[in-house]
Amino acid sequence: MKNTCSATNPLRAFFNTIIATALLSLPLLSPPLQAQELNAVIVTATRTAETVDDSLASVSVITRADIEQSQATDVIDLLRLQSGIDIARNGGPGASTSLFMRGTNSNQTLVLIDGVRASSATTGTFAWQHLNTSDIERIEIVRGPRAAQYGSDAIGGVIQIFTRNNKTASLRIMGGSYKTDLLEAGIGGGDKIKYSLNATGRSSEGFSRTKKKSSSYNSDKDGYRNQSLSGNILFPLAAKTSLKISGWYSKSNVEYDPYGGGYGVSDNSNGTLDLRLKTQTTSIWSQTLSAGLATDDSKNTSSSISRIKSERLMADWQHDLILNQNNLLSLGLSTYTDRASNVSISGSSSRFNQSITDNAAFAIFQSRVSGNDISLSARLDNHQLFGSNNTGQIAWARDVSGKLRLLASYGSAFRAPTINELYYPNYGNSNLNPEKSTTTELGLRYQPTPQQQLRINAYHTRIRDMIQSVAVALYTYEATNIGNAQIDGLEVEHDLNLNAWTLLSRLTLQKAIDTSDKSDLLRRPRQKLSMQLRRHLNKNGSISAEWIYASQRKDYGNVNLDAYSLVNLSARYRVRKGTWLEARLENLFAADYQLVKNYNTPGRSLYVGIRYVPAK
């Protein structure tokens, strides 16, 4: 079935769907109002605990309950519902996936797993396709620059994944379209020493990634197999001191259609490990000492065989000082070293084997003065190749009334070139400079009743010295600082809770352009809207509907990708104590759409399963 948004006026389809949804919802939203759920606590925005409402940044939280209600097995199906986030994927399960936050490039968003910088040291991007939702406890999304808190990469924002925290044993089995199978098992608990462990196996026969007109077309099905393990253990060492060890590991096998046709296979492994020692030294002074490791290992077979390995070793030492009840000062030191190698196994030669180190010091001051909330952040990064990079941020908020809160911020950020951009043969350039940006943002939060909240954020970002590939000879390209971008955006979020019903609406309007020719940056729609409607069945489960609309986008070759609209349904129902039946129906109307030129996307897909959690 062809996507009707491509064949008709997309704005008409856009507004017709909104009106239809509203009309259908009216008889359902008649029960008495219900108080909103407790305000979530986050730590990513300021590196210290705060509630979502108190944060001076634009933040979102995806909880474990949200994941189980959606039944999504792919993390991008959760993230694409959020404002300011766009997704592009080269095919089906396991295919290379790019995430664009607030119109920035896919390597300009910092990804953390339990505090560990998890993106590849060679590409600068995170392998979203290999992260199972079964390994996730919570996702914190912070939009806007965060280099003053975390250093390189956080131009568009930060996404932090916290691994699963099981409280008891659980077992889940699911299967469905494209011969997809999933088996998930977990265990957790403990009194003084708390522990959690989760294991997942997932496989899919998939479908051909490429369309017939692609130069890489192969009619065979491109399958995917993945196994993952995540866990943590918390040791109380003293009355006010604890040690927590957290880890995540994923191993996958991906089939793909290589350039020029044929058959390709990629074996990948990704992992993180975090050791975190927390101590309350005095009543006003606490400190956290952490050490982390992130690894990325990929072996590809097509016309030649190559292996790319990267690892990141990092450490942070943070001190939090409560100056008084209205002032908090955080001081810290940070360091990380990236190591990477690229070896042509078929030719028994090394393309590169390099390492880079970055050391930093940071300070974050949070204060409340005469009804004004103020945050000042500054960081100095001393990079092995580029020397000093100074970044800063100032944020302000004020409660105009008990219902209205105004916000404003300004921040700078940078991204250091990756090892590929510096050293890859016939591409790398050791004379590169870091990419740099500035962002100005204004926002408001309005909560007319306890059952609903409106959040609006407008931002203006300028990025200079963007690294782009430039032809220097026949079939030879070089990474060069020639790009400049301007991104203007508006995000509108509305939450409505009425008795057992929840309606979440997320609208993104953005204009991300290359300032040299005013052309749109690739694969970023100018309009996107998502809506989630949920019905909670007391303690017996829930039913949910998701609707996503994305406008036309540009892709390589000056091609326009058509607008598309997707509808997904999910449900979970408790058939007996501890036993749940689950189902998810994706792409209900079988929309034919593309996220990347000449690459296929899933059609209508059904997945059903059963989950068992022993009753307490």
Characterise the protein shown here.
The chain is mainly beta. It has a single domain, classed as Beta Barrel (Maltoporin, Chain A), CATH 2.40.170. About 5% of the residues lie in helices and about 60% in strands. It is built from six helices and 34 strands. The strands form five sheets. It has a 22-stranded antiparallel barrel. Strand 14 (about 240-255) and strand 15 (about 265-280) form a beta hairpin. The longest helix has 16 residues, at about 10-25. The relative contact order is 0.15. Mean pLDDT is about 90; it is low at about 1-40.
Fold-level CATH name: Maltoporin, Chain A
Distance between the termini: 47 Å
What's the total number of strands?
34
Instruction: Summarize the biggest pleated sheet.
Output: 22 strands, antiparallel, barrel
Residues in helix, %: under 10%
Structural class, from secondary structure content? mainly beta
Query: Tell me, what's the shape?
Result: globular
Q: Please report the number of helical segments.
A: 6
- Overall pLDDT score: 91
What is the top-level CATH class?
Mainly Beta
- What is the second-level CATH architecture? Beta Barrel
Q: For the CA atoms, what is the radius of gyration? A: 24 Å
Strand content: over 45%
Mind telling me the CATH superfamily name? TonB-dependent receptor, beta-barrel domain
Low-confidence stretches: 1-38
Any idea how many domains? 1
Write the layout of secondary structure elements.
Elements: H1 4-7, H2 10-25, E1 41-42, E2 50-51, E3 58-63, H3 64-70, H4 76-79, E4 85-89, E5 97-101, E6 109-113, E7 116-117, E8 136-143, H5 147-150, E9 157-163, E10 170-176, E11 180-189, E12 194-207, E13 222-238, E14 241-256, E15 264-280, E16 285-301, E17 305-324, E18 327-344, E19 349-369, E20 372-383, E21 387-399, E22 404-415, H6 419-423, E23 435-449, E24 452-473, E25 476-498, E26 501-514, E27 519-520, E28 527-536, E29 541-550, E30 553-555, E31 559-561, E32 564-576, E33 579-586, E34 605-612
Parallel strand pairs: 6-9
Antiparallel strand pairs: 1-2, 3-8, 4-5, 6-7, 8-9, 10-11, 10-34, 11-12, 12-13, 13-14, 14-15, 15-16, 16-17, 17-18, 18-19, 19-20, 20-21, 21-22, 22-23, 23-24, 24-25, 25-26, 26-27, 26-28, 28-29, 29-32, 30-31, 32-33, 33-34
